[in-house]
Amino acid sequence: MPNKLKGSVSRRTEQRVVEEDALSQELCEFRRENKEQFDNIREDINGIAKRMDEAEEQIMEAETSIQASEEMLLVLAKLQTQVEAKLTDLEGRSRRENIRIHGVVEGAEEGATSVINFVESLLRNGLGIPPTTAFNIERAHRALGVKPPVGAPSRSFVVKFAGYRIKEDILRRAWQARGFDFQGKKVFLDNDYAPEIQKRRKEYTAAKAALREKNIRFQTPFPARLRVHYSEGMVTYNSAQEATEDLVKRGLS
Question: Which residues fall in a coiled-coil region (predicted)?
Fold first, then answer.
């Protein structure tokens, strides 16, 4: 082979070797870069997984805490209901010797020597109670609150007796007489109920109006029930909703 041809072949061989070495280096560099990227991605994934585990643990702890708080709130709500019921019962018992007098014109007691004397005279004359019957009134006053303007409903009287029997006797007389007239106004008496009891008893207003319209006898036992004497028998309701639903079924709107 001529020397010139040999030299040409040798150069091409050397160039191919150089190219192969360069390609091999590029491939190695590509693999190294890919490995670094994969390692970084793996570290990121491991970091994300770790944070997710921590987040899940925190969520579980938060859910446990929320559940415990909800259970505690339920216990506290139940306890509050029980306490309120006991307080209402205690307040009701403290008012057992009290009556409320409604309908007396505001300021009618101003000419009397005392409110107690005014109330005694009012009840004796209005209900025909003899002077020999001792009232034993401990306290008597207008219901607390601002004096109403002219033309507005007057405040009731709150009267506390020393004994339960005389209070019940006066109430019985007043209910049998269906009240009495004083200075052109109708005066009527009732028990002195606690505010919560008054609210619950007031819910029966519509039901009682329907019963009165049909001349059906009823009673309102303590604390807030409705006892109705139907022709077929007596029925006692424990809530205004219960009474209303049954009255509707009976055709009493």
Answer: 38-72
Strands 226-230 and 180-182: unpaired
Hey, what are 232's tokens? 């077929």
* pLDDT tens-digit series, residues 139-189: 999 998 888 888 888 999 999 999 889 999 999 999 899 899 999 999 999
86 and 5 in a single domain? The answer is yes
Same domain? For 139 and 164 the reply is yes
Q: Are residues 12 and 75 in the same domain?
A: yes
Single pTM value for the model: 0.60
CATH classification of the domain holding 232: 3.30.250.20
Q: What's the number of domains the chain is made of? A: 3
Task: Supply angle C-alpha 32, 33, 34, rounded to 5.
Answer: 90
> Do residue 78 and residue 134 come from a single domain?
no
Q: How far is CA 138 from the centre of its chain?
A: 36
32-86, pLDDT tens digit by residue?
A: 777 778 778 888 788 888 888 888 888 888 888 888 888 898 998 998 888 887 8
Packing angle of the helix pair 3-94, 195-202 (nearest 10 deg):
90
Beta strands 226-230 and 218-219 are: antiparallel
The DSSP code for 141 is: E
